[in-house]
Amino acid sequence: MALTEKMTDPGVRSTARSPAAKRRRAAKRRRAAETRAGYAFLTPWLLGFVLLTAGPMLASLYLSFTNYNLFAAPKWVGLDNFQLLFHDPRFLQSAKVTVTYVLLGTPVKLISALAVAMLLNNSHRGKGLYRSSFYAPSLIGASVSIAIVWKAMFIDRGIVDQVGQFFGLGAGGWVGNPNMTMPMFILLTVWQFGAPMVIFLAGLKQVPADLYEAASVDGAGSVRKFLSITLPMLSPVLFFNLLLETIHAFQIFASAFIISGGTGGPAGSTLFYTLYLYQRGFVDFRMGYAAAMAWVLVVVVGIITLLFFKTSKFWVHYSGEAK
Amino acid sequence: MKRLTLKAIGVAAVAALVLSACGGGGSAPKSATGALETGPVTINFTWWGNVDRADRYKQALALFKKKYPNITVRTSFVDFPTYWTARATEAAGRALPDVMQNDMAYLREYTANGHLLDLSPYIGKTINLSGFDQSLVKAGNIDGKQIAIPTSTNTLALFYNPDLLKKTGVAPPADNYTWADYATFLAKVSDTGTKAASGQKVFGGIDYATTFWFFLQWVVQEGKTPFNADGTFGFNEKDMTAFLNLTANLRKGKQDYPIARTTQLLPKGGFTVNESTSEITWDNFLAGYVADSGTENIAMMPVPSGSDGKKDMFFKPSMLLSAGANTKHPAAAATLINFLLTDPEVGAIFGTSKGVPADKAQRAAMKLKPDSVDATVTAYEKAVTDKVTKPVPLPVKGFGSIESDYKRLGEDLSYGRITVDAFVKEWFANAAQAMQ
Amino acid sequence: MSVAGISRGSVTAEPSALRRRRRRNTERVRSVLFHACVVAVLAVVLYPALWMLMSSLKPTADIVGNVSLWPEGASLDNFAKALQGIGGVSFWTFFLNSMILAVASVVGIALSASVSAYAFARIQFAGRSVWFALMIGSLLLPIHVVIIPQYIIFNNLGLVNTFVPLLLGKFLAAEAFFVFLMVQFMRNLPRELDEAARIDGAGHVRIFISIMLPLMKPALVTCSIFAFIWSWNDFLGPLLYLKDPSLYSLPIALRLFVDQTSTSDYGAQMAMAVLALIPVLLFFLIFQRYLVEGVATQGLKG
Exposure string (b/e) for B5-37, b if CB count within 10 Å is 16 or more? Predict the structure, then answer.
């Protein structure tokens, strides 16, 4: 809109009937029509956004300052919930469990994904089949069925226990041992490396082969090639995977719920953040407290996302930039 | 700018809608004593329990359908913890089932907000309580409203496996054994190193200090009333610490049934897989234990005595039946409740699997074959009648939550993750919150 | 082999043939090594799925304490037990519930996401960039911050214990992933067709229906498959909103089944787990190309 104002030559008297004015009006009508059409098409999303996303977000912010328990009207308690949170041993435990999971699980998963992607990045036959096969666990990994299977594999005298004993690990299932439940969950997330792997493969395909050839001519070895060509060229994809996987890792729920039976046991070793939130909000019905937990999560994830984006300019190279 | 304002208004409108509708308490419950409808009626009935109980209910409801062909009963069941979560959400939405199984632990919470139907108008008419002991009926009467009626009574008992115990060479506890004696007994059995049929080591039993109701039993024995009429506790941190320390040595010496194994055996336990020789629990569990363990020979004896040598046991009214205040068919609900409470054939079907029936006719109708589970439990309750001298502790609001808290902390304690002092501190802190 | 024979004995003639043979051999060795490596990794990765399948065919006593995969005494007993259902509700009811939810989700998402994506990708309207940024932001938002108020709203409207809370969001494009995917796809479609149609006097609705939708088929298929699978596997939603066992979807029914069966009945649990996954695996087998390529394009121009 401002553009047309600038285009008007102050020297020419423009009347309402001049061709320039007519064009401006026509343009304005078109833009208005476009805007109407745009909002018409956007209506479902707008409704969804206001009713199911933005509205609830604000409502939960309000709730986090109350002691609402679903039975009686909400009562304002100010910062009480937040104060309680940071002194609540279970909250701190859930934070610890979740952060451990994110810090250990995500890197291992991504490294596995990259390794297998590089293994598959060639012109051998059957690559498509292999790619799909590795991807399959990602589809079912977070399902209840797999959680049940995973648990059954890790019980006393189960398959993992037997194999573990063969390799010298102590006897006893991992499910009942508070020290081994985290490795069990990390294995579960690493098992689902197929999805980031597919994305890495797509990224690897885009690396021009002549870069590698030029490096070979210069006498670079595989490690050098990997560090100087592959990684930088993959950095956008790596960034994308890192961001998404980290955010997903914070939100693990179904597997934790099924394997621990909803308890977060044994001894709180599987009390993931979202599981504790669920317990507080939908078992104890301390919804104000749960809303406070949800907002803490949003803030933490927001900060991490921001950090990722801010630091990305130091290590993410988009193609087309001068080297 | 205009768009932003519109958006802000829209969002505020939604927020307002949400929160104005938030007030959930206090709409008056229906109390109309409508006559039983003659047309087809469908009501919902839900309970907690296992497959065995579900089968029994199926039989009982088939009988009900014969007697009242126009009433269709839709059923569902889950395990105990899940049950209460589901009921709570229904209560919030004023959508409780027409008839539901209830427990003393939750009566206060549900009464406070008028969620349960007052059955008083039906008593003496649709619901015939002439065969009931009045004290039992009173147990379900809160603030003058009869919001639940118990179907049976339980009391605590020590179960033990005589055959397994014989294998270890240790004699069962003497009649006047105390809690400390019981801890010694448990250690002794575990130390024999006997192996069970499954190849695992046999233990005396689990750490009994981690069950809330046993703590309450001990508190009663110590001469205190666990819950005062004003909702405060009749016990303090010192009491809880003392009780938890009764088994400190057991935990230290790893002579209690390993918690790691219990976690993996759920819903069974050490006792029901024949790897532990004893367990304290409610007497109606005998049926389930026999079924789960495959062992017919399970003996019962009273709980340990308190420091004054007395048992001071109590009968807990259990498996109460309530109707949701939001029911659209109160008369049909009352009819089902009466049927389950008083029909003699129902007594025969359930036996003692829910406890000893509260109704005299149902007690008489139980087929007490000698050495049957029902005979054993009934005989047990008769035998300990002279030891049942105390009233049941009336649970406060939030009881369910403090009970599960105790259990969870007990698990942490068993895993060695917290100390007794930390346990007590956290429990009391959470309890203050739960009772708000 | 036979080619090399020709050049034997001549120093200058075709040393490249030898090189070619050596290259072919090294290539073959490398190929074998490659396949061996990949198959080894694949075996480890697919082992849990295989174990699940084999265990469902074994009697429970053979599952715990037994390392061998092969089911001796294989039988379909576990499946028979799983099919009996729980709490008086048959397995097929759960299956049907899951199917209804999944199909409705697909329809809802296909409609709402495509319409929203068209607005974002093809219509220049005021405020578009703001809304687009918000949409992308919602991709990164943890859902737990909205589930509590959503639950309260649905509860107050008496919609708990219905399918409505689970489906409303799908028809309102509440899952930004699908909108985003479609927007990316649309941006790659040539605008000439649009402009030609515009000159002919077609409005946006006509362009959308007659031009965009047919061209969008690959994206629609990909989104539909993901929508189906994610709905099929959804656990938290049904856990919160489905209270009556006759409404349960398969994941919730499976959890109920596990809660109620004694621990010694792993066989039946495995069988039901397998049954619950069959549609997902079928979709995967038939549409794997769409799935994998849909995932792959996500990361480019992220």
Answer: eebeebbeebbebbbeebebeeeebeeeeeeee
> Exposure of C286 by Cβ count < 10 A (0-12 exposed, 13-18 middle, 19+ buried)?
exposed
Distance from CA of B93 to the nearest CA of C (A): 6
Taking only the tens place, the pLDDT of each residue in A187-198 is 999 999 999 999
A191 in reach of chain B (CB within 8 A): no
Q: Which residues have C-beta within 8 Å of that of residue C4, sequence separation ≥ 6? A: C17, C18, C21
Task: Give the mutation candidate from C66, C67, C125, C240 for the A interface (greatest A CB count, under 10 A).
Answer: C125
Phi-psi region of A322 (alpha: psi -120 to 50; beta: other; left: phi over 0): beta
Structural contact between residues B147 and B322, judged by C-beta atoms closer than 8 angstroms: yes
User: Which residues make beta-bridge pairs with B116?
Assistant: B324
Q: With respect to CATH, is domain B20-153+317-367 assigned 3.30.70.240?
A: no
Q: Which residues of chain C have pLDDT under 50?
A: 1-10, 301-302
Comparing CA positions, the residue from B303, B277, B290, B270 lying closest to residue B376 is: B290
Whether residue A276 contacts residue A96, with contact meaning beta carbons closer than 8 Å, is answered with no
The second-level CATH assignment, the architecture, of B156-312+393-434 is: 3-Layer(aba) Sandwich (3.40)
Q: pLDDT tens for residues B22-56?
A: 443 333 333 345 567 778 998 889 998 877 788 88
Task: Please report residues of B whose CB lies closer than 8 A to that of A50.
Answer: 7, 10-11, 14
Question: Which one of B4, B14, B90, B275 makes the best mutation probe of the A interface by having the most chain A beta carbons within 10 Å?
Answer: B14
Which ranges in chain A belong to alpha helices (H)? 2-7, 19-48, 55-63, 80-87, 89-120, 127-140, 144-153, 159-166, 181-191, 194-205, 209-217, 222-225, 231-250, 254-260, 273-278, 287-315
Q: Does pTM top 0.80 for this prediction?
A: yes
Task: Collect all residues with Cβ–Cβ distance below 8 Å to B29 and sequence separation of at least 6.
Answer: B114, B115, B116, B117, B118, B325, B326
**Cα–Cα distance list, B298 to B301, B387, C123 (Å):** 10, 21, 77
Q: Which residues from C are below 8 Å from A241, CB to CB?
A: 299
Angle (nearest 5°) at CA B306 between B301 and B312: 65
φ, ψ of residue B233 to 5 degrees: the values are -80, 145
Distance of CA B17 to the CA centre of its chain: 39
Q: Which residues of B touch C259 (CB under 8 A)?
A: 78-79, 82, 267
H-type alpha helices, B280-392 = 286-293, 330-342, 344-350, 360-365, 373-384
H/E element, B159: strand B156-160
Query: Domains in chain A, please, with CATH?
Result: 2-63 (no CATH), 81-315 (1.10.3720.10)
Query: What is the C-alpha separation between B219 and B223, in angstroms, rounded?
Result: 7
Degrees, nearest 5: CA angle B141-B144-B145: 60
A49 pLDDT more than 80:
yes
Handedness of CA A61, A64, A67, A71 (dihedral sign): positive
CA pair distance A265, A261, nearest whole angstrom: 8
pLDDT in tens, C27-46: 888 888 888 989 999 999 99
Domain ranges of chain B: 20-153+317-367, 156-312+393-434
Helix then strand then coil, in percent of chain C rounded to 5, is 75, 0, 25
Most confident of A62-76, A244-258, B28-42, B364-378: A244-258
Closest residue, chain B, to A70 (C-alpha): B92
CB of B76 within 8 A of CB of B132?
Answer: no
3-state percent helix, strand, coil for chain B, nearest multiple of 5: 45, 15, 35
Q: What is the DSSP string of C14-53?
A: -HHHHHHHHHHHHHHHHHHHHHHHHHHHHHHHHHHHHHHH
Would you call B303 helix, strand, or coil by DSSP?
coil
| Cα–Cα distance for residue pair B259/B208, rounded to 1 Å | 12
